[in-house]
Amino acid sequence: MKKNIVGKAFSLLVTILLVSNSIGIASATPDKAEENGYWTLAKMKTAHPFEMQFDSKTHLGKREVIQNAKKQPPPSDAVTGSPWTQSGLAQSATGKVFFTMGIINYVCSGALVKETDTARSIVLTAGHCVYDPKTGIADNWMFVPDYDALQLSPFSSCDEEDGCWYADKLLAHTGFTDELGFTDTATMYDWGFAVIQSDGATPLPDKDGANAFTLDESGLSENSQGYSFGYPAAGKYRGSDLIYCKGNVFSDSKNNDATWGMVCDMTGGSSGGPWLSDFVAGDGKLSSLNSYKYTNDRRRMYGPKFDSNTRDTFEEALAWSNP
């Protein structure tokens, strides 16, 4: 059975849908009505890639659809925006995220998180790929792992048998959802989790945890090497290939060292894609994600520093069960 997340366009209704617990986790439970095949191939191909573009002067960001990003030559000391061709978990556990904010369809990226419940899968993505302060919780939230393989299978509307998974619950931290815009604080909490429950017929995408990354909130440190993955779909990228960057991470000095940075020219559509530490043979640990870029800098990507708040959000996803 396909499922959908029922979002609300008005902030008053959003406050009703977002239930916060004592440790500051905001969540939304979807309507149990059967989803009616919302994501057709045509809608998936025309979903808008966007970036959260942050302004270092105003300390505010905005959702910006980028179709023709200007190309800038990358520094010579980094691999930037290369197709991933070596399979492994990097390929199978990373995927594309499709959702609706208000009346607009968007695309992001995400990754499966290792856990032990055989009747459930959990996906990590960016907070701005599950929630927007203007339109609320995302509608029609769907995860497609290993999107490269999906393109080989013709379908009309995408469902579990095709490898397309609708979320049963979305969670984010109130450090993100309580902000009225994409602020300094929001950049520090820009993660979200989606819970997908089994329909009892089709094997879940994490394959009982064998096809998922371990969450490690302390995996990155100053000047450690990170790998970033995603499905950029703007500028020179078309959204059809898994792209990666690698390089040493650094603290964002323009953001009070509160977030990580990495040389990476991935564009809109890569938001929410995983940053992996301890990366070996296509596997690594989830330690940050693609979050934002600066309006005047196309060559660097930034992401939150995972911490105990990230772990708390994940633990809340683990604790949730479908009534």
TrEMBL record:
InterPro entries: Glutamyl_endopeptidase, Peptidase_S1_PA, Peptidase_S1_PA_chymotrypsin, TRYPSIN_HIS. Keywords: Signal. GO terms for molecular function: serine-type endopeptidase activity. The keyword Signal applies. One of its GO terms (biological process) is proteolysis. This is Unannotated protein.
